[in-house]
Amino acid sequence: MDVKRAYRFRFYPTPAQEIILAQTFGCARFAYNHMLRLRSDAWLQRQERVGYHATSAALTALKKTPEHAWLNDVSSVPVQQALRHLNTAFSNFFAKRAKYPTFKRKDGPQSAEYTTSAFRWDADRRELRLAKMDEALDIRWSRTLPKAAKLSTVTVSKDSAGRYFASLLCDDAVAPKPEVAGKVGIDLGLSHFAILSTGEKIASPKTFRKNEARLAKWQRRLKKKKLGSKNRAKVKRQVARVHAHITDARRDFLHKLSTRLISENQVIAVETLSVSNMQRNHCLAKSISDAGWSEFVRQLEYKAQWYGRTLMGIDRWYPSSKTCSVCGHVQGKMPLSVREWTCSECGTHHDRDVNAARNVLAAGLAVSAHGEAVSPVLL
Fold first, then answer.
1. How do residues 116-154 score in pLDDT, each as one tens digit?
2. Which residue, of 45, 130, 172, 212, has the greatest Cβ tally within 10 A?
3. Residue 102 phi/psi, 5° resolution?
4. Do 128 and 120 meet the contact criterion of CB atoms below 8 Å apart?
5. Where are the alpha helices (DSSP H) in the chain?
């Protein structure tokens, strides 16, 4: 299966490269914000729609003015790509897939996208040179790129913690994994991240909760610093580092778990959840956000597609928790405080979560056998 795959690596720029990247980020951000304002004003004032080609022409004219001549100091490719990203943002907005585009901030995450004309890639030496740079990037090659990989784009980014990353997009061939006999149903939870139909309970990493006290300490210090001071910038960087650590730890856990489940099972069934609605419960919102259910299911989706597995989403209204997995009897009301229960029909004693996972698997297997209604795997 041929796919477009991005490989993300951390790199450490030289002082000269840092200056060039800062200028590039600034020019790309300016072009994006300037054209966002131009398109918004055109609609609000004249009900006129401005497309990509009009913004591209406006950018060309802007570069010729003396006050904006600094836009020519960096590669034109990332600046032009910023206009394409803006156009994509508007397309997603009009298709109701996203909110209205917002302005990019100087103190937020920065990125610049280079196409093939703006970088040189030496596969033998594993050297990547960007436009306007004499030296290759000092990349930490933590993974192996596909043989004879042809890079289509390189996206350079800097996060709020000050770390630099290069994301290399290339064509890759993904081979399906050998078929296995395993079948599993997954019930997602908070006290345990996932409960499997096999009876296994996978503990939640609770990455945010474990770092909450450290984050609160730095946030209290940040609040006391004077706006615009160097000390405030230092503390703000520390806050960003804690957030980056939380994000990295959560992503690592989710990738390892999703890869393991995909490798061990041919069929995976998971209950679809409306995470955005569940987060309206202020008592559970923080724990639900910390769990990362949506990202976990997203990883299961694309990995199942890559490796020839079957992933099924069970309707969110399916009474998996209060249905007996032995006889099929549906109990009455069952509050969340009830963690174990006994079926009034067959007398089987159930662990609430394990029973739910078994019902999720049974409902998933019924899809092909009996055509039972299921929903797409979307959270």
1. 999 999 988 999 999 999 999 999 999 888 877 889 999
2. 130
3. -115, 160
4. yes
5. 15-46, 52-63, 76-94, 207-224, 230-264, 275-278, 285-291, 293-307, 352-370
- Note every long-range contact of 308-311, with CB atoms under 8 Å and residues 24 or more positions apart, other chains counting: 308/176, 308/177, 308/179, 309/177, 309/262, 309/265, 309/266, 309/267, 309/268, 310/266, 310/267, 310/268, 311/268, 311/269, 311/270, 311/377
Cβ-contact 329, 343 below 8 angstroms = yes
Active site (catalytic) residues: 187, 271, 353
Q: What is the band of 375 on the pLDDT scale with cuts at 50, 70, 90?
A: very low
Give Rg (Cα) of the chain.
Answer: 25
For residue 104, the model assigns a pLDDT of: 96
- Burial of 141 from C-beta contacts in 10 A (0-12 / 13-18 / 19+): exposed
Number of C-alpha atoms within 13 angstroms, CB side, residue 182?
A: 19
Which of 168, 92, 103, 179 is closest to 130 using CA atoms? Answer: 168
First to last CA, the chain: 26
Residue 323 has what DSSP assignment? B
Spatial distance between the Cα atoms of 34 and 15, rounded to a whole number of angstroms: 28
Confidence of residue 109 (pLDDT cuts 50, 70, 90): very high
DSSP type of residue 344: T
| Ramachandran assignment for 3, one of left (phi > 0), alpha (psi -120 to 50 degrees), beta (any other) | beta
For 2, list phi and psi in degrees, rounded to 5. -90, 125
- 69's CB contacts (< 8 A; 6+ apart) are 63
| Domains of the chain, earliest start first | 2-173 (no CATH), 183-204+256-370 (3.30.420)
The answer to whether 359 touches 318, Cβ cutoff 8 Å, is: yes
Mean residue pLDDT of the chain comes to 91
Q: Kindly state the tokens that stand for 181.
A: 């006999």
Burial class (CB within 10 angstroms; exposed 0-12, middle 13-18, buried 19+) of 260: exposed
